[in-house]
Amino acid sequence: SMQRTVNRTLNSSHDHKLLALMNVTGFDPEKVTVTVKDGKVKVLAEHKEERITTGGKEYHCKSITKEISLPPGVSEDEVTYSL
């Protein structure tokens, strides 16, 4: 279950604190952007698909945006992330 995954992740990071866990399944890792600015971590995941159908072209777009404030005392250059 998702809860077990979260617990395993938390337990495996003894030296680091986990600020957020985000599910970006279905998104190309190259289309996931993480920026750290003004005391906030912003995550943007985008997926665009174009299909040719008998009626013409269809475009399917989906995106996820998440903004997390850094806890007090944590500097922006301490932030790491992984996919």
Automatic annotation (TrEMBL):
Question: Does the keyword Flavoprotein belong to this entry?
Answer: no
Where on the tree of life does the source sit, at the highest rank? Eukaryota
Q: What is its main location?
A: other
Location(s), subcellular: Cell projection, Cilium, Flagellum; Cytoplasm, Cytoskeleton, Microtubule organizing center, Centrosome
UniProt-listed InterPro entries: A-crystallin/Hsp20_dom, HSP20-like_chaperone, ODFP
An example GO biological process term is: spermatogenesis
Q: Per the database record, which ranges form the SHSP domain?
A: 1-83
Q: Name one GO cellular component term.
A: motile cilium
Keywords of the record: Cell projection, Cilium, Developmental protein, Differentiation, Flagellum, Spermatogenesis
Describe the task this protein carries out.
Answer: Component of the outer dense fibers (ODF) of spermatozoa. ODF are filamentous structures located on the outside of the axoneme in the midpiece and principal piece of the mammalian sperm tail and may help to maintain the passive elastic structures and elastic recoil of the sperm tail.
Q: Which family does it belong to?
A: Belongs to the small heat shock protein (HSP20) family.
Name used for this protein in its record: Outer dense fiber protein 1
